[in-house]
Amino acid sequence: PILLRSGQHPSNGVGILCFGGSRTSYGINPLPFNVDPLLGTVNCRLNVSPDVTMFVPCTPTGSLDTTITIPTGYSGMSFFAQHVTLENANVPGQMSFTQGLELRVAF
User: Fold this and answer.
1) Rounded to two decimals, what is the model's pTM?
2) Spans of the chain, pLDDT less than 70
């Protein structure tokens, strides 16, 4: 299993894991995609294709932890993950986006 963790979120808040196979496009839309005009956020981008998304609770200490397992048949492939978190009212758009990361699978 692989642990993906981001921090400094609201205690017991709600986050979203975006997991996908691309960092360059999602359907016909190029990535990264600036979500600021849509959500009222500041400097937030969707950096990975959200092929799979799931809601995840934040911990009491404000970290967003998601654990994923990639089967051995995917060796040699890359996947991309990004956390999105619902934030307090003092954060523009009340959302934050991590930069995302690339997972290169090797067994």
Assistant:
1) 0.92
2) none
